[in-house]
Amino acid sequence: MNQVTEPYTFIARLLHWLVAALILFNGLLALTDEWWPEHYLRTVIDFHKSVGISVLLLVLLRILWRLTHTPPPLPQHLQSWELRLAAIGHVLLYVLILSVPFSGWLHDSAWKDASTHPMTLFGLVSWPRIGFILHLDPPTKEYLHHLFGTVHTALNYILYAVLLIHIIAVYKHERLDNVSVLSRMGFK
């Protein structure tokens, strides 16, 4: 590499990779839900919800960290259009990473059996449903459950598309520009 860039703080890097791993893992869980035997399905779904809420909490922590810790400067070789795309891409990633678990939480809160099946994070900590949705009339809840499920799925696909673009951009900088942007988020 010709140019090595300054890394993010250890906490920022840890949160980045933890959130990334949990997002990929949770996507895999969602895509394989039909493969699980019926008697495991509720456990898999509850685990999916726990991982999703964990992502939501971790990304909120990551945003707080970023607001209180100045990120390292972007590589000097970037053109102005690349800087704009990087800014847009990062904002979009944060919005999607927040929106996906929140839409899942809305979807779960509108589930017809939500009031009789308490939600717990990893079976350890009680987690509330969104109250105003939980107490709607059954037809409205059924409609919202379907709507929020559709939104949740669509947002996931958009998130994975943006993540793919993010990975392609990293590859471009690493291999074509010969600038180690991956070192900004790597562990030594």
Question: How are the SSEs ordered, and which strands pair?
Answer:
Layout: E1 3-4, H1 10-31, H2 38-68, H3 80-109, E2 119-121, E3 125-127, H4 131-134, H5 138-176, E4 179-180
Parallel strand pairs: 1-4
Antiparallel strand pairs: 2-3
Helix pairs in contact: 1-2, 2-3, 3-5
Q: Outline of this structure?
A:
The chain has 188 residues and is mainly α. The chain is built from 5 helices and 4 strands; from the N terminus they run βαααββααβ. Strands 1-4 form a two-stranded parallel sheet. Strands 2-3 form a two-stranded antiparallel sheet.
Q: Could you describe the 3D structure shown?
A:
With 188 residues, the chain is mainly alpha-helical. The chain has one domain: Fumarate Reductase Cytochrome B subunit (Up-down Bundle), CATH 1.20.950. Helices cover 67% and strands 5% of the residues. The protein contains five helices and four strands; from the N terminus they run E-H-H-H-E-E-H-H-E. It has helices spanning 10-31, 38-68, 80-109, 131-134, 138-176, and strands at residues 3-4, 119-121, 125-127, 179-180. A two-stranded parallel sheet has the order 1-4. Strands 2-3 form a two-stranded antiparallel sheet. A hairpin with a 3-residue loop joins strand 2 and strand 3 (125-127). The longest helix has 39 residues, at 138-176. The chain is elongated and about 55 Å long. The two termini are 16 Å apart. The model has no long low-confidence stretch (mean pLDDT 91).
